[in-house]
Every structure is written in C-alpha cells, then in structure tokens.
C-alpha cells in the first residue's frame, strides 16, 4: 500500500508563482491517501504491456488531469510510470510534482527523466505546456509496446533519437493504426504542431476504447 500526495484544487487556485507552487506542494504532503494498487510502473512490468482499452483509459485520465493543471498554468514536466499510482478501482493518480512549475511564460530549465524529455528540452530550448503533451505520446507508446519509444543503449544515443524523433512501430505486439496515429501526432518535434489536450480527448482511438466509468478493467 502506497501513500501518495494529493494536489488540492483550492491550493492550486491560489498559487501565483513557481516558488509558491513548491511551498504548496510541500504542504500538500500533509494531505494523503492510499494508492491501494501501487505504482503503474510495477503493473506495466508485470504485464509487459497493456491492451488498448487499458492504455486508452490511462491516457484519457492523464489528459484530463493535465488539462486541469494547464488551466492553472502548471506544467508537470516529469510524468512517467513511476510517478503514476493506482487506486483500488484502477484509477490513475499523479504523484511527484517536484519538477512542476507554474508559469504563463516559456521555461528554460532542463529537467525530468531522459526517456520522456521533449526535443526542446533535450536541446536546452525554451519550453511550455507542450512538453507534457509530448510525454503523453511517449507514455502511450510505452503502455502499448512495453518500452519507451526512444530507448537506446546509451544516454547520448537516446538524446539523438529524441532530437531526430527516430520512432519505429514494431510488428509485435499488435497496435492499431488509430493508436499509432495518436502517438505520431504527439511525438512531433515542432511543439506547436502537437495535438492539444482537447484534441487528444476527441481522438478516434480514445473515443472508441474509453470506458465511460473512468476505470480500467
């Protein structure tokens, strides 16, 4: 059983700058709840990869959560399976807002976890909310194939693959064309051309496979 932090809606609404955000996140640790099913990372390792209905529900849940954060000008910047936890009904909860920032302007700090970094962060360029959208693409790929899309033998090679958006879709396990389309429209080097969170929620792969109850079976 894992205790996780909960980002309280009211607290996010009163945050006015990134310094205060970090104070709020620290204080939020006082408010906790149980994530009965632990880390999504362990579940993914156990299964190898998720089926499309599971992956869809996780991506939809994350998209909705990030949409709320972005409305409050909060960029997470470190979404990965280790930072995603499951409650007793299989619903996702985002943990670890340590690299998050609240800002209406572009940021320049390189942070996060290598396999999930967007090209603009790898190249040490200014970035905005679109880095979270990129991460949704990497997670969608990992959920369906069992490994991040740009994984390589060395960090240097991973950097190169990210910068070139060197992505391939293996023949196994089987992944639908709709899923590949969503991934391809998120893993785009030009951040302005990535699908918006609203467009992700409206994507055919999501609408076809999502469980209206909001849980993963």
TrEMBL record:
InterPro entries: Aur-like, Kinase-like_dom_sf, Prot_kinase_dom, Ser/Thr_kinase_AS. SUPFAM superfamilies: Protein kinase-like (PK-like). Residues 1-206 form the Protein kinase domain. Keywords: ATP-binding, Kinase, Nucleotide-binding, Serine/threonine-protein kinase, Transferase. GO terms for molecular function: ATP binding; protein serine/threonine kinase activity. The keyword Transmembrane does not apply. One of its GO terms (cellular component) is spindle midzone. The keyword ATP-binding applies. There is a cross-link at residue 80 (Glycyl lysine isopeptide (Lys-Gly) (interchain with G-Cter in SUMO2)). It comes from the Eukaryota. Gene3D superfamilies: Transferase(Phosphotransferase) domain 1. SMART domains: S_TKc. The active site is at residue 78. ATP binds at residues 82-83, 96. One of its GO terms (biological process) is regulation of cytokinesis. This is Protein kinase domain-containing protein.
């Amino acid at each position: 059983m894992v205790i996780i932090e909960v980002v309280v809606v009211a607290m996010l609404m009163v945050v006015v700058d990134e310094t205060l955000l970090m104070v709020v996140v620290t204080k939020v640790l006082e408010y906790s709840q149980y994530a009965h099913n632990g880390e999504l990372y362990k579940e993914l390792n156990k299964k190898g990869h998720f089926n499309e209905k599971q992956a869809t529900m996780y991506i939809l849940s994350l998209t909705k959560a990030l949409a709320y954060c972005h409305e409050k000008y909060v960029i997470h910047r470190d979404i990965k399976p280790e930072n995603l936890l499951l409650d007793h009904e299989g619903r996702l909860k985002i943990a670890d807002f340590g690299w998050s920032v609240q800002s209406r302007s572009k940021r320049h700090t390189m942070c996060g976890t290598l396999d999930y970094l967007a090209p603009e962060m790898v190249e040490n360029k200014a970035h905005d909310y679109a880095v979270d959208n990129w991460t949704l693409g990497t997670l969608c790929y990992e959920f369906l194939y069992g490994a991040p899309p740009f994984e390589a033998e060395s960090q240097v090679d991973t950097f190169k693959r990210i910068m070139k958006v060197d992505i391939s879709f293996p023949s196994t396990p089987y992944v639908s064309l709709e899923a590949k389309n969503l991934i391809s429209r998120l893993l785009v080097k030009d951040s302005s051309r990535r699908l918006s969170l609203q467009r992700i929620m409206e994507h055919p792969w999501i609408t076809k496979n999502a469980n209206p109850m909001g849980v993963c079976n």
